[in-house]
Amino acid sequence: MAKAPVPGRVKTRLCPPLTEEAAARVAEAALADTLEAVAACGADRRLLALEGEPGPWLPSGFEVIAQEGETFNERLASAWSHAGGPSLQIGMDTPQVTPELLDECLAVVAEHGAALGMAEDGGWWAIGFADPHPEAFKEVPMSRDDTGARQLERLRELGMDVAELPVLRDLDDIGDARAIAEAASGTRTAGAVLALDSLPAVDVVLPVLNEREAIPWVLGRMPEQFRPIVVDNGSDDGSAEVAARLGAEVVVEPRRGFGAACFAGLVAATAPIVAFMDCDASLDPADLPLVCGPVARGEADLVLGARRAEAGALPVHSRMANRYLARRVRHLAGAEVTDIGPMRAARREALLDLGITDRRSGWPLEMVLRAGLSGWRVTESPVPYRARVGKSKVTGTVGGTLRAVRDMRARLAEAGRAARRR
Question: Cα–Cα distance between 332 and 298 in angstroms, integer?
């Protein structure tokens, strides 16, 4: 059960101290975390009873049904009428759930026939039935500090033997948001709360070569305190003009090359922390706080967004190349990485001191190799990866692929020599 994260319609109890727009960003992060956990659990069907319209936060594999009914009780009953067999229902208020927890709860439901998970505030966060019982919500008062107790009473009235699920904390007010963010530090919710609460200003470098169609979506998803720096690397489709019109700082780098564009953006940046990401809509800027957070807290020196690619988003040869490169990085530089992902963050001055020389496709790899060889704390944060808008300039052409292979081989050879000297 969920609401689309529309400002003024969701998480209004976070206001104040948050604005309606900021509260909606926290709500979207919580919804995305919850849906990702559901997508990764062992359920055979995944139904989203939604009030509003689906957005980029919705993973594949969900059946979306509209919430129907005047009261929440009626909407709950309507949603359950679509279920069949042992089922578990949760909302978007507990983004700390994990696939493992959901699997455990489903097993309890299958064994006992009914289960209820109480929330710390007196409500409930999860309910499950071996067979649908739409009548289970009749006359149960909702959104009260005795809702959980009254729901349990109703289930027992229907003759059910109700098993207890773990007690969780709902995300209702800012205190809940901070507590959940601290307990589940690797979630998007934690990143969103951190960005609103304590994350310093971050400059985001966006290398661009004919990305006119993707730029509005990317810039429109940029969180507060994150300043986009669009580096135009020779576009002829008006990309720079679109970015400027939407309020981004635009830097022109006439020298062709991904590394040249990244370096130009790094030089133009002024914030203490600099992030990099592709501007083709394959990555969501809403995930930037998750990548920048460990750097801001002093827990890591370089954080890479390890891509969790949707079906078809990352070609097979790219997956294989990334696995190979990650192994070589671990061997040569000691950095424990699984993906040489394009979303990443580090402190600006430290990056400049790293002395990256590649100005073409080897820039991302050289950054990680030099960081590892320099003793940096290199970590990863998982981020979703979607099919890009338009054709890749590197892996989308034979010439681009060959240049990338040549550049990366040179960086690996250079790192091998440095490792041997060390």
Answer: 25
Q: Are 365 and 309 in a shared domain? A: yes
Q: Hey, CA dihedral for 87, 91, 94, 98, is it positive or negative?
A: positive
Token pair of 376 as six digits: 């940096």
306: Cβ contacts below 8 Å, ≥ 6 apart = 337, 338, 339, 341, 380, 381, 382, 383
Give the whole-angstrom CA distance, residue 49 versus residue 214.
Answer: 29
In the predicted model, is pLDDT for residue 166 greater than 60? yes
Q: In this structure, are strands 124-129 and 114-119 parallel, antiparallel, or unpaired?
A: antiparallel
Q: Is 161 in the same domain as 227? A: no
Measure the CA–CA gap between 31 and 39, rounded to whole angstroms. Answer: 12
CA angle 314, 295, 94 (to 5 degrees): 70
Same domain, 251 and 161: no
The answer to whether residues 118 and 243 belong to one domain is: no
Both tokens of 417, joined, read: 């020599």
pLDDT category at 335 given cuts 50, 70, 90 is very high
Expressed as residue numbers, the domain containing 106 is: 2-176
Question: pTM here?
Answer: 0.67
Cα 193 from Cα 177, distance rounded (Å): 7
Please enumerate in sequence order all residues whose Cβ is within 8 A of that of 356, keeping only pairs 6 or more positions apart, or say none: 259, 263, 363, 366, 367, 370
Region 54-83 average pLDDT: 94
pLDDT band of residue 192 (cuts 50, 70, 90) is confident
